[in-house]
User: Fold this.
Amino acid sequence: MARSVADDWVGTKASDALLRPVRTGNAFEETVERLLLTIRLGIVGPGERLPSERELADRLGVSRATLREAIRELQGAGYVDSRRGRYGGTFVKDSLPTRRPRSRARSRVRSPQELDDVLVLRAVLEAGAAAEAARRQIGASEERYLRERLEACRSADKLAEYRRMDSRLHIAVAELTGSAALTSAVADVRARINGLLDDIPALDRNLRHGDAQHDEIVDAIVARDPERARRAVDEHIEGTAALLRGFLA
Assistant:
């Protein structure tokens, strides 16, 4: 896998937060879940290689047999390919499966209260993460890492890729806090938000507005202004919340 600036600074990487030991009661199911989150949130992107079987098994705290079974299921579902040889391994497929449209009756939220619950959780976690990242006074390599994620989001040319890069940018902000627990929580809530976004139309104007708001969030963090960073995230996620409430509530 190509080296990026992510390798140049010491922080809490999203992969460390997601690929953490699973609970033994549902080891197989949780292994599949963690690997899917890692792929869907763009932690390991299309065409990139997952960590080795040995490393994944160690990090997830599962047997290699359980891990192999999980990888076989993901391969069958069209998310990964396994290759043999010196440069082999398990690679995320270039084109990921698309979800079939669902009727409103099958939406991921069952009530306005359930929708508000996830939106409030997101607001608290992501605004707090941005403020803490700004408070920590990030260094030059961390700024490059953040701007790399920003550019990847801006240059995404397909909606599915944009969603992954958007998620990676927000998770990158949490990574800069140095908190594995916060990074994991932000990743989890982003997965829930992305599931909700799959239930509503993608609006071009909203996406362009989101790019401008991303710029403001990153600039506020780099400027070491916690309150500005918090306000920028609040404004950004409230726009998304308004659309979700309008279409789903």
